[in-house]
Amino acid sequence: MKKQLLIIPTLIFLFIFITFFYLLLIDRNPTDIPSNLLNKNVPEFETESLFKKEKFISSEEFGEEIILVNFFATWCKPCRDEHVYIKRFSDEKKIRVIGINYKDNNKKTIQWLKNLGDPYSDVPIDKNGRIAIDWGVYGIPETFVVNKKGIIKYRHVGPVNKKNFKKLNSLIEKIKQ
Amino acid sequence: MTPLLGNFSLWLSLFFATLQFVVSRRYQKSKIINISVLGLLVSSLLSFFLLMYSHIVSDFNVLNVFQNSHSTKPLLYKISGVWGNHEGSMLLWILVLTLFNYFIIKLYNKKNSIFILKTLETQAFITIGFVLFTILTSNPFRTTSHLQTEGLGFNPILQDPALAIHPPLLYIGYVGFSAAFSMSVATLSIDNNEKISWYIYMKPFVVAAWTFLTAGIALGSVWAYYELGWGGWWFWDPVENASFMPWLLGTALLHSLIIVEKRKSLQTWVLLLAILTFLLSVMGTFLVRSGILTSVHTFALDPSRGLYILLFIFLIGVYSLTLFGSNAKRYFNNNYFSFFSREGSILVNNILMIVVCATVFLGTIYPLIVEAFTNDKISVGEPYYNSTVIPIMIPAILVMGIGPMLSWKHENKIKIFEKIFPSICLTLIMTIFIFFIYQSFSLIGIAGIILSFWIISNNLIMLIKKNQKYHIGMIIAHFGVGLLILGITASSVWQEEKIIRMKINEKTKIEKYSVIFDNIEEIKGPNYVALRANFIVQDANKDIITRLKPENRFYPIENNFTTEASIHSNLFRDLYIVLGSGNSNDGWIIKMYYNPLVIWIWIGAIIIFIGGIASMNINLRKIKVFPQ
Amino acid sequence: MIKKIFILIIFVFLSQFFLNNIYTVEPDEILKNQEQEQRARKISKNIRCMICQNQSIDESDATLAKDLRILIREKIKDGYNDDEIYKFLTERYSDFILLKPPLKLNTLLLWILPFVFFTIGIFLIFFHNKKSRKI
What is the ipTM of this complex? Predict the structure, then answer.
């Protein structure tokens, strides 16, 4: 009996080895954390809007069409880089984009949008970062895809670039159907 | 020129390692094997010092120097910069490997020739693996494509004297276990009709590896304590775990070797431990450098490196473990012993160390396993380790206090009580005394203090008895562990923290000390500029004890900030001040710690190190005294 | 000369940037009520700083960490108990934010295996001891 037990270390070793091997080969990003809000309703919030006089009330905005929610700030450099692609969503793809302005200065933001172009249908202001916390945002920029029923279908962390623009786009097409 | 020579010396190392591998397979010593061992040593010394030379003269055409150095960096950090990065650290690793290789061939004599040659063969294989890894995936002698006149700098948080010597010590530890691994493989693959006492050979290497690994880990903690500015010194970070796990298994290996030596039992067990300890050392390297885990200290990440190390682990792991599976039964024996005996206590400790190691391993890789199977992400942090590791450590330390006093084979239970009665009394007196001073009670505090004095008083009694049976290295090292536990317990249970905003000339109190914020000034270091605050610390009688000068440094080249805590230590407590942000109008954020008995952690570690060195000497002598 | 100007620029730069450079709870965040503050510290030590690696928000200087520290203190003042605060955070940031993983189906092995290891160890010792008595 005891002789057979001698094989146990090899088996445990192989199990660990295969796990590592699998983890190394699959396309994964250790810093990418899945959102806990997927397939849930958008969090409810009310806040000032940058350009409109009336308040931004989430329950009145979501639930009719596919909406992209983009958390951005003028002090965040990657936000500037991804802005081109956010604009492409609203200009070319005719998707409504809501830009939540995270911990920013209103004047600066208005100037920033003037310079770079304004793809947002509305810019609710998140002065103290609480809306971001409600959305589970941990790094600016983050982009959420919300479907017709007001349910969050996807979250993208980090700037949208050429590569993941395509990916996001095909995802939106899929959700549309 | 240097890069060319460096590359040449790397290939030369590969050549000599291959030569050693081929020649040692013939099971008879020839001149060639001497030449290859020596050649390997010389060529790896050459490549190591060539890289060091490039760092010292700031040859920025070498990519490694360009990426990790700067002409204004102090000389000490230019030198330590050699192993402060992934590629350079591989050269150090290879150098230590070949040094041990050289020590092994020194043990050669006519009677142990098969054993030593087989060991050298395995060592050569490991060396080939690491040299190839360096050449293929992490060559430190790659040159920059454009002419560079200045380097990118070196992460300032790593510019610290403790961290400068931390990696060499750690590598002596890891690589020392490679010798134990090779010897275990050699033992398993030879017929051993000659009854070679392989354990006598293995032990000094294990003691050396363990001693240096302990020192390396301790220095890493010193660095964390002084440099990170969080008042703590151990954070259960994956990188820390990667060195802690081999240490735990190494501890088990070290102690069970004593049983093999004295009683010839548990031979299979020790052979397995020797294999696992080294596998775990390499596995730690894999975890840290492949980017599979993310951690504070992450070296340059590269999946191809991870894949290579993983394949290497697979080769040596499968080979050694299947060898173990098929041949270990030769080393079965029936030398059983009672639970109440010295062997029994060592076995208990062994098992508990392995349980702790398995738990730490589980905690480290569990997030990966969950992710692989369910796609969920979870975190396993300090609270998990504290609540699993500490309860298992407590019985281990209890047994550690009494174990060395028991007799071999079997001990009378009444006699046990007679033996430990004085130390029980001493422990109780000391514990009451300590609590009389600190007057703060918590379960974990009481447990820690009792355990530490349990170890200290047992070892004191053994020392006083001057019984020749007791091994002096062991007593010293165990005594050090007692002090270590004292420091750990006191500093974590009775730590006092104060975070306040202070303006200049304001005064605050921590414990019985008054701290006055005297002024703040701008200073200029060799490669940084800093804000330095001056604090005057007074005791209860208003006598000035010390001036503390915490700094906030800015390293313009690396565009990086570090905080330099300022610490006043004595045997009873550390006063620890960190300067935070602020300005002269609103005041500055100041963080202060009163850390009782912290210094005993470091003193304990030094004493353990001394004990280890003493034991190493004794065990080396045994090889000479016990010819086959 | 150029060097001097360079240093000057850096000092201006310094005073700007040290604003971000604090490694802990800031004094302005601390609650007056000591008991509540203790609770807040205890919870913070258990909450992972999402963008840092293996750091709790208690020891992190990231802005999100600071926001969460303040949020936790507000919740405590509003009379939330610890479980409710943990629930609030995990609803938004998933279990990833907890440094001490909760006992769930996917962490079952994590919490049970140490006990299993321990039991196997004890079993091994007794197995060995029993054999020794026979001899």
Answer: 0.85
